Task: structure prediction
Amino acid sequence: MQFYSHPDKLLRDHLKEVSKEAVKYITDAGREDLSVYARIAGGLHDVGKYTDMFQSKLASGRRAECSDHSLISSLIAYNEAYRTTSNKLYSLLTMIAVASHHGRLKGIGEIYESLSDLMLQVDNSSGADCTSKQYTDLRSKWELIRKELSWLNLSDLPPLSLIVKNPKDAALEVKGRTFGWKEYFDGLLLFSVLIDADKHSASGFEEPNPEPPSADELINFSSTLPKYGNEVDKIREELFEWAKEKADARSQKLVLSAPTGSGKTLSGVLVGLRSGKRRIIYSLPYISIIEQTGSVLSKAFNDEAKEFKEKRVLTYHHLSFSWDLAGVWDENRDVESRMMLAESWSNPIIVTTFEAFVSSFLSNKSSYLKRLHNIANSYIILDEVQSLPVEKIALIKEAVEELAENLNSKILVMSATVPLIYENVERPVKYAPNRYTIRFMDVDSFLTPSELAQRIELSGKSVMMEMNTIGSAEELYSSLGDREVEFLSTRVIPKERMKRIAKMKERLDRGEKIKLVTTQIVEAGVDLDFEVGYRDLGPLDSVVQAAGRINRNYRAMGDLYVYRIRRKEMKRTDFSLVYGKITENITLQTLKQLSESSVINLEEKDVERALAIYYDKVKDYLRPEASPFAKDVLEMIKRLEYNEVEVKLIEEELKYTVFIEYDDEAKKIWENLRSELNQKNGDAFKRRAKVKALLSNAQQYIVNTINKPEVDYDERLGWYFVPRDLVSKYYDETLGLRVHGSEEKEDDIW
Result:
């Protein structure tokens, strides 16, 4: 009799492939010491599929009683791992990986509870429970299984009572003990290599092997970039020379502070390319600058004309997967492979969000954790690190440093405004740029957006106007009147936002006088250069980031005017609504310390001193123990309660997801997505790939809002839907989504 793992794959072949790949992945990660556990986890993760119950399910395509195989496979994996190594903890970690490989990662306590319940069930069922039935079936086939899996050198199958009791007793012994980051990451890594190897074997996908990028390519590209003929050239040359020197030094951890517009992207990647690591993970806060950074690096390494599998730079975020598929499904496209490549992060350079990066090791979801093994033995760049949430930055800093220590990685932290929590900051740019003056305008008083509009001078210069909330941005835009002012906020669909940013950059580079009302989405890293700026008061480092869009390329001295905004109907300022009262008070205290005057002028050359005062005041909030959330997460990490670990940088408020059928492409995406969700037959993996690609494309037309829309609701997707014939009613071409029948909420922000 032949046994199958999938309709077209023999079980013995699948188990051997997964075991071999899991060992390869963990070796490539630099953790060959864990290869014995990876080998056992891969070789036994589906051993429960040898039962008649599972084979019947596979043959019929219908659910069969007792066909679930993860639990019985994990019990056998524990006993084989312990027989081989005599290590209870790592045998448990092997078992947890196998038990979890079809879902989220389980924790030690959770495994103990399930094993205790299973022990009672087995003892009291007289063989009628599924585990007993599966065990009996496997025992009758054990000699055949040992023969088919001869490369594992399996022992005799222990009695059922011991199969369950051994890991239960080990879990009881381990439960509640405190471990270190090493054990935490080792458990994650075993799970990561198993599930990624399993996905690759099941899909038949083979990893591409693009030519690795070289430092010389980047250096040559840098020499072709345009020169400005001013101090910007000096700043960029100074930083790039530092990068060449530091690349040779191969430091374990670097913290870099350099002015905005100094070319941190290319300098950071140069350090990474010469660090001796197998890939670069370049992480940034916002999608707009991820796309911008990915585009620059694609040009640097001549990636733009390459086929998907040959690309060396992968830009990864929730909008990035298969955009070029548009709404039309093409059966000739190898979408399954594209999805596998995008999710696994095996390209030489990954450009991604902080959210995606952090979820790769502070989460329990398999779709995130399966890429962890490819982060191991890599060079990690955290750019614009000041954008991380204050209450979580210390936890993330500790986690990333422990990841580097335990998974053979190196780190480069970069920003123009590095938080005080980072020590030994290098400031290689000795030339002190002085491109702008931040003018704090009587921040003890308040203006409404309409009142601010009366103080803004738009004629003759390019002007950026940044508000903390969407409501204030819209009010300011309306108050300015019809004066050819551009607008950006997250109520505008992503497809149009990115188009607007690209178009504005082209116009600004040509010397046109652009006027822009925006929220904070343009702050960190967006390469737009205005002559004058206006901003609602925010955290001092955010204000400095906004100033980085003023006279970025060192033309004439620029000004950023900062006012304190409070909408007429609100009791609180927009600052406190978005960033909280504590951060607002710290910022006001810093400004008071800088000057007793109601108007404070802070030139760029003075920014470092001002930020030192600001960060000194917030440092107590940067300690993990100062945050109850971080303290709880650390406790779960140290107890290996993986199921309890989930850190989100973007807190999910009560929001409604709205799909805007904005154009013909959106219409095709929506029709194809709903059609594919209705499909019940065919290859499940291919169907999942189609849905995943279409969902990603759909994100181009999605807006999230706090207010409930008065439009149709799709229960399967959990989305509201604005059809083409109602777009003009619910979507403004400039301001984006309009929600009828409800008032603006005070915390409706960017």
